[in-house]
Amino acid sequence: MEVTNTSFQAYSQKVEQSNKPKSNNSFSELFASYKAVNAVAVAEETSTDAVFSMNTNKGNQENINLDEYLTLGPQSSNGKLEDVSILLPTAHNIDTLAKYSQEEFKQLLEKYNIPSPENIKFDNHGKVVLPADYAYAAQLQQAFAENPKVENALRTTAALASHYAGIMEGQPFRDEMSTARTEADKNRIVEKYSYLFDNNRPSKEIILTFLDDGNMVIGEIKPR
């Protein structure tokens, strides 16, 4: 199993290099490039700690209370579907959610006095997948059941990271198409990247790895 990693920490935090798993950096480089191009800003908290400025379908800066959003799910004040705020798969949102999820998960483990698993994944149905040798699986599943916000935070982080990775996979196609001069060039590029248009193309599989200090690293599992 090949995993490429990136750490989605708060911009003010630094993860020691010796703490990071060894792997290639393609996923990390894509994330860094995306942030540089889009000049991603640090998420600003309001007077309510759980409220963050997020990128949603309603605009680039909408204040979202993540405690409420991840406990109740997307809500509409008037019951109209078009008024529901949906978090977009942007670098800013992933970084903010990762920081939030990391802290919430640390607090959950401390509350239940159980050690962290090495990693967490989610299957195609959104169910938690823990390492087979994790001895506290039952306790953690119970903790999640009693604190669904934390599980939802981790799941949402992984889901947005998966979408983000898929978007970035198509960036070379968009770059080449933007410089294509003729129809022949366009046809050649479409043929080159035809796999991107496969309706059965699997989504990117994301793994959340937890380091000894509790920091979370988001990685993409590469198919063999």
The termini sit apart by: 7 Å
Rg for CA atoms: 19 Å
Instruction: State the low-pLDDT regions, or none.
Output: 7-26, 33-47
How many domains? 1
Q: What is the average per-residue confidence, as pLDDT, rounded to a whole number?
A: 79
Instruction: Please outline the major beta sheet.
Output: 5 strands, antiparallel
Strand order of the largest sheet: 1-7-6-4-5
The portion of residues forming beta strands comes to 15-25%
What proportion of the residues is helical, as a percent range?
40-55%
**Order of secondary-structure elements:** EHEEHHEEHHHHEE
The DSSP helix count reads 7
- Inertia-based shape: globular
Quantity of strands, as a count: 7
- What structural class do the secondary elements suggest? alpha+beta
Region (Disordered): 1-23
How would you describe the overall organization of this protein?
With 224 residues, the protein is α+β, with helices and mostly antiparallel strands. The chain has one domain. The protein is 42% helix and 17% strand. It contains 7 helices and 7 strands, in the order βαββααββααααββ. It has a 5-stranded antiparallel beta sheet with strand order 1-7-6-4-5, with helices on one face. A two-stranded antiparallel sheet has the order 2-3. A hairpin with a 5-residue loop joins β4 and β5. The radius of gyration is 19 Å and the shape is globular. The protein starts with a strand and ends with a strand.
Please tag this protein with its features:
224 residues; alpha+beta; 42% helix; five-stranded antiparallel β-sheet
Write a brief structural summary.
With 224 residues, the chain is of the alpha+beta class. It has helices at 26-38, 66-72, 91-112, 137-146, 148-169, 171-179, 183-192; strands at residues 2-6, 51-56, 59-65, 119-122, 128-129, 205-210, 216-222. It has one domain.
